[in-house]
Design goal:
It is a single chain. This protein has 189 residues and is an all-alpha fold. It contains seven helices and no strands. The chain starts with a helix and ends in an 8-residue tail after the last helix. Helices cover 77% and strands 0% of the residues. It has a single domain, classed as LemA-like domain (de novo design (two linked rop proteins)), CATH 1.20.1440.
Length: 189
Amino acid sequence: MIVLWVVLGIVVIVIIGLWASYNGLVRARIAVKNAWAQIDVQLKRRFDLIPNLVETVKGYKNFERETLEAVTRARSAVGQVPAGNIGQRAAAEGELGAALGRLMVVVERYPELKANQNFLALQEELTGTENRISFSRQAYNDSVTGYNERTQQFPSNAVANMFNFKKEQEFLQATEAEAERKAPKVSFA
């Protein structure tokens, strides 16, 4: 009779362990999805600000057309990325960010544009949005780290294998490693 209770106790402990491990994996997977959704919200905010920024800048006759066209093309490329493709979306958003960066550099040559209140407000909104995007990317990578740890550590890796959890989520990384890691060159000459 004691053996039966011991065996039953072991079975209950194993079931509780499996249950807890499974729920932890589900929580981690949901955290990754939520973190990506937070990034998506901020990217959508930036996406919506761009037409207003471009229209404000277009009002200045002598402004370089190529820069505006590059921003418009990059924005269009972001809209064409299939939903759920994190790698492609990150690359397209990186291109858009780079195009916006070039736009802001070119704006420095136009003092009357820099003084325009609409432009200043849009620039402030865009700067705040870029900061939120950066924070959201860090939070996403933290969630991915937690998920990846759970799917690779014992005993939750056994549960992950049993229930077909994706082995490893993709981190958001700098796409053009050398170019994005270098400090920008600022010149007031």
